[in-house]
Design goal:
CATH architecture of the largest domain: 3-Layer(aba) Sandwich
Helix content: 25-40%
CATH class of the largest domain: Alpha Beta
Number of helices: 12
Number of domains: 2
Structural class: alpha/beta
Mean pLDDT: 94
Strand order of the largest sheet: 3-2-1-4-5-6-7
Radius of gyration: 22 Å
CATH superfamily of the largest domain: Glycogen Phosphorylase B
């Protein structure tokens, strides 16, 4: 089977998507069922700098994705014609039309599909465009990969996608970095015991809960918490990031928060290894790679209870209703106050949950799905 993987983004790539390609592409290349892979990405990806080369994989450039442009650009069309794919895999829920080659898409972002009160007017318009592109991609694809049962159930029940068209495939777990590095922005003194949260600074991440938790802990409980917030904001989210910092200052907890910025894998590992609690305050996720990372590092976790987070944690985390900062604070202190033996037992449970996720399984199930799309079984006539 000859597979064309088209990374049709606007040039950017999330940390989770990057990790997906880093792990899955080499496994695709090693599988005997795949003869060759054509991997197309915008130039800004610099994908050859972070994915291992392989004789079966050819990397080419494509133009960044544009709204409602479903035909490959001229150079990509030439590459596809020369390559002759049996199936096209677009891992970012975008549609591309090339001859009669079947396509498979994957839902990585649920924010456009279930946007709520957390999205402002300008962001709502952008999410609306993404919703439309996702809807088109799902309708046109032969198969759709869902990262969680939450995504799968949404497609089946809300969009009426046929059950046989949707395949649930989890991402694999993430190995801790071998050389942890303390982030430079974390103060040297007074930060030996801290909470940690990470991910892009987006409205759906619900970081207001973190700020209000810090304020409640300080002013009501009399037990100040130190919280490290990893992640940066894209250009459109910079004003929101500034509002968050202003809100923290208004609540009197600026000194309790460390905005650590974009962290390397080594810095993330250091934070996971040294935090007392990992916080997940997101309002919506397709699955969340940071959850897999926290599990792999054996973190004690407190998370919102909205799907798919309970599904991802699998009973290994404490949960609270999103927006309920009082309950969040209560759960945090429950975890912080555990005895060493209790903490160790929970960490073992967390690591056991991490073992349920494997990149080898992810790749194998994805290849099976691509084969089904490339070689559909004819329907029997009654």
């Amino acid at each position: 089977m000859r597979v064309a993987i088209l990374n049709l983004t606007g040039s950017g790539i999330s940390g989770g998507y990057k990790k997906y390609l880093q792990n899955v592409l080499p496994l695709f290349a090693e599988d005997r069922r795949i003869d060759a892979v054509l991997c197309a990405s915008p130039r800004a990806f610099n994908i050859e700098d972070w994915v291992c080369s392989h004789a079966k994989i050819r990397f080419v450039e494509c133009q960044p994705f544009r709204f409602l442009r479903h035909k490959p650009d001229a150079e990509l069309e030439k590459e596809l014609a020369a390559f002759g794919p049996d199936v096209i895999f677009v891992p970012v829920s975008r549609h591309i039309r090339f001859r009669d080659v079947p396509t498979v898409t994957m839902i990585q972002n649920m924010a456009p599909l279930v946007s709520g009160a957390w999205s402002g007017l300008k962001e709502f318009a952008a999410l609306g465009a993404q919703w439309l592109e996702t809807r088109i991609a799902v309708r046109k694809a032969v198969k759709v990969v869902a990262m969680s049962d939450f995504v799968r159930q949404f497609l089946l029940k809300e969009w009426g996608v046929p059950e046989e068209k949707v395949r649930l495939i989890y991402f694999g777990n993430s190995k801790p970095s071998e050389n942890p590095i303390r982030p430079a922005l974390i103060p040297a003194k007074g930060w030996d015991n801290f909470l940690f949260t990470a991910g892009s600074v987006e409205q759906y991440r619900g970081l207001e809960d973190v700020i209000l938790c810090a304020a409640h802990a300080r002013t009501v409980c009399g037990r100040p918490l130190k919280i490290v917030i990893g992640g940066s904001a894209r250009k459109a989210m910079i004003p929101y990031h500034m509002r968050l910092k202003a809100f923290a200052n208004k609540m009197g907890v600026s000194d309790d928060l460390c905005w650590a910025g974009q962290l390397s894998a080594e810095e993330m590992t250091w934070c996971y290894n040294n935090c007392s609690v990992f916080l997940m305050t997101s309002r919506v996720e397709a699955f969340a790679v940071v959850v897999l990372e926290a599990l792999a590092h054996g973190c004690q976790c407190v998370s919102t209870d909205n799907p798919p987070l309970p599904e991802a944690f699998g009973g290994s985390a404490e949960h609270y209703p999103p927006g309920d900062h009082v309950e969040l604070t209560h759960k945090v202190f429950e975890v912080v106050d555990r005895s060493p033996a209790e903490s160790q037992a929970v960490r073992e449970q967390v690591r056991a949950r991490s073992a349920d996720f494997s990149w080898a399984v992810t790749a194998a199930q994805t290849i099976e799905t691509l084969l089904e799309a490339a070689n559909p079984v004819p329907s029997r006539k009654p």
